[in-house]
Amino acid sequence: MSAERLARLRGLLAGGQACGGRTLEALLITRPENRFYLTGFTGSSGYVFVTAGTALLLTDFRYVEQAAEQAPGFEIVRHGSPWYATLGERAAASGIRELGFEKDHLNVSDFEKVSGAVGGVSLVGVNGVIEELRVLKDPGEVQAVRAAAACSDRAFAQLLESGVLRPGVQERVVAAELEHYMRLAGATKPAFDTIVASGPRSSLPHGRASERILQAGDFVTLDFGAVVDGYCSDITRTVVLGKAGDEQRKLYELVLRAQLAGVEAVRAGKTGREVDAVSRGIIAEAGHADHFGHGLGHGVGIAVHEAPRLSPVGDAVLGQGMITSVEPGVYVPGWGGVRIEDLVYVAAGGSENLTASPKDLLELS
Known about the structure:
- Helices cover about 35% and strands about 25% of the residues.
- It is an alpha+beta fold.
- It has 2 domains: about 1-135, Creatine Amidinohydrolase, Chain A, domain 1; about 140-365, Creatinase/methionine aminopeptidase superfamily (Creatine Amidinohydrolase), CATH 3.90.230.10.
- It has a 6-stranded mixed β-sheet with strand order 4-3-2-1-5-6, sandwiched between helices.
- The longest helix has 24 residues, at about 140-160.
């Protein structure tokens, strides 16, 4: 798999797509997600150097053996201290005159150090080169996201069975239990900080779990994800502790209707803006336009937030192989809110929902 991805990257560099029509002799990759995508290496420290005939993975003593196992097709170089001195040596040996770097990841301090280390080689900032390759998932990547989504589904089912979601329990305890169940289901780690927002706090779109104690009648929004084989899932469910009130039921049914319509709208050939407008229009017609302030969805893969964007500014056209969340929400300050989120795969001739957890309003007694 790394050989195919490396060939695609070299094609972008040689064809000028990586730098606005300008060809590039070499690229330095420092973003961890992009390093993993290209090499399969899962260690915490490494730098990738690619030319037309060279593919190096620079890492330190801790990871040399691991890198050799995980990154076939790459020459594993144990770098010295500092790492950029070794980069400078290898860049000089390659005879390149220009070196592209990920300008949205390399900070100013490291840029200055790399610039000094590579001597007369000119540094050229590029943006989104590997990310462009990552947006279309291959079958192995789809399977990994599918496995991560199944892991989240199992964890949610176990959470419901455990009885932890009840009045008197702290939000942080619920989050800890949810993360525990994800680990038991096969996750290497949570995909992001688990969100558990109850009662009035459910109006906070990113209300991380707090010390608040769950109370009868609360909306409880749970937004969580698992990492399996290096790929993420992302799911949100909102439940009620006890019997839902009329206004709670009305709001939930509105968001569910918008969410189902959004999932159905995901199709190859549509822009992110067009899909977003389907769900946003339903919510706006119900008088809640001002209570839905974020985009409808985002790509999910190695990172939990990546391309494409489903939003009012989502110009990118959806294509077969993309995976995106669909997560409309309505948030009423001081009262509460509802969000429902699934992962959707853009398949040939339609789409596939990768999330299996129930979406009917759950009233937990």
